[in-house]
Design goal:
The protein is mostly helical. 62% of the residues lie in helices and 8% in strands. It has a two-stranded antiparallel sheet with strand order 1-2.
Length: 156
């Protein structure tokens, strides 16, 4: 039987001092006449998780049980670990890098497409509508194929 202060007992149980204080206030843990916690008695009287019946305030409008909050925390930590692993393995891209890549692609496509009228004007002079449309579509396909085959290089 060890006698500990509430703060020492909280460290021993790896929980907050407030959790121990609340357990004392609810009568789950009884203090000795010296105001100490008898670890043997407290361990038997208090479940392994620090506050199984307590509510955790997530936001002013939302409350959940301590167990649910713990499950959510563990799930969030697992997701974070998976994201870190994906990043280390090169399977995760930085959003800013992706945005810069798309901006470069759109800029190149826009510039190449805007050059088409002046480039095709001489070739299309005197053509009927159907022939002019065929020349324009061929030129557009060439621009898009070149862009697909040789995308602009984006440096992270």
């Amino acid at each position: 039987m060890a006698l500990l202060t509430q703060a020492a007992y909280a460290r021993y149980r790896r929980c907050s001092k407030m959790a121990v204080t609340h357990a004392v206030q609810r009568g789950q843990i009884r203090l000795t006449s010296e105001g100490k916690v008898d670890t043997d008695a407290a361990d038997r009287a208090w479940p392994l998780d620090c506050e199984p019946d307590a509510e955790v305030i997530v936001s002013p409008d939302a409350r959940m049980s301590f167990d649910e909050a713990t499950r959510r925390k563990v799930a969030a930590q697992a997701q974070l670990a998976e994201l870190q692993l994906a990043e280390e393995q090169g399977r995760l891209l930085d959003a800013a890098d992706v945005l810069r890549g798309w901006q470069a692609i759109v800029h190149t496509a826009r510039a190449n497409l805007r050059n088409l009228p002046s480039r095709l004007a001489a070739d299309m002079h005197g053509l009927d509508l159907v022939a002019a449309e065929a020349v324009a579509l061929k030129a557009i396909d060439e621009v898009l194929t070149a862009l697909a085959d040789n995308p602009p290089e984006v440096k992270p």
